[in-house]
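User: I'm preparing a small set of examples for a lab meeting where we compare how different chains pack in three dimensions. I only have the primary sequence for this one, and I'd like the structure in token form so I can line it up with the others. Please keep the answer compact; I'll paste it straight into my notes.
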Amino acid sequence: MKKYINPIGFFAFILIIGLTTACNEEPKKANGTKTEIVNEPFQKRSVPRFDRDSAYAFVAKQVSFGPRVPNTEAHRKCKEWLSGKLKEFGAEVIEQDFQAEAYTGEMLNGTNIIGQFNPHRKKRVLLGAHWDSRHIADKDDERVDEPIDGADDGASGVGALLEIARQLGKNGIDIGVDIIFFDAEDLGKDNRDPNDKTDYTNTWCLGSQHWGKNLHRPGYTAQYGILLDMVGAKNARFAQEELSMKINPTLVNKIWTMAGQMNQGKYFVNALGPGVTDDHYFVTTLAKIPMIDIINLPEGNKTFGHYHHTHDDNIDLIDPNTLNAAGQVVLAVLYNENNQTF
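Assistant: Understood. Below is the structure token output for the 342-residue chain.
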């Protein structure tokens, strides 16, 4: 994943902030007329316990397929497994196939995997992570041209969301929840040439760019979105990512406050982190759904974790306790939203 966003050169924050208001307007039909809002009864439900060992097993399973680079057999097998698990947990699944050209010129065959819980409900929350892994180890000193496992950068967010899906299937919820595994996120150009002023932002997050322009349901919207990226490394630090604070500061502050109350302040640090080019950027700007990012942003580290885009991003890096911190907090958000206490 990605590069840090330059907050000085970053485009139209004011517009993005405005989207948080626009997203709360009444939904409209394709012809511009307002859709009738139906009163939907919601049953109060207890927050289930996130199973850290289950989430860890989901991460390990993804890694076992090999690097999940589009156009590979490992990628195909993992796609089938992910879709199957979401169906097993009771979600209605859409596989959104697409083609996109990578910065290398290769045509990628990608699939966004969308699991819908209570698809008829109007009140919805969107959860996301990317399921592909990087095609090169461009920050490593060895085997630079080989793909990486992406245990944290990709698989950890997916593993946490699979466990959340499992809990939704077991325990039930009344609001609508959509889980999207975005594809072809991590095949962008990481430019480190100070003389090259080209903006390579759009070479990243090809799956969320496609989804943002081609929603899985016409007129789809959600109250807000939460992205999980790199949420599995030992001693991760989830600072408040700068772009998220521009998009939806109220949501960020509520989540971080709740995390502190849940004794997860070790991970959810009340400190501003740098902005990141990530799927939440395109969900917000293209689909106009304000989405925030829970992501490991080590203190004083301008290149993410030491393992970022190297072969050290493997299963040995993953700590079930970190997965639990992210997953349990997001579960609490969903069930408190359901109970109208969030």
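A couple of notes for your slides: The first strand starts at residue 4 and ends at 5. The beta strands are 4-5, 92-101, 107-117, 124-130, 176-182, 224-229, 238-241, 268-273, 275-276, 291-295.

User: Perfect, thanks.
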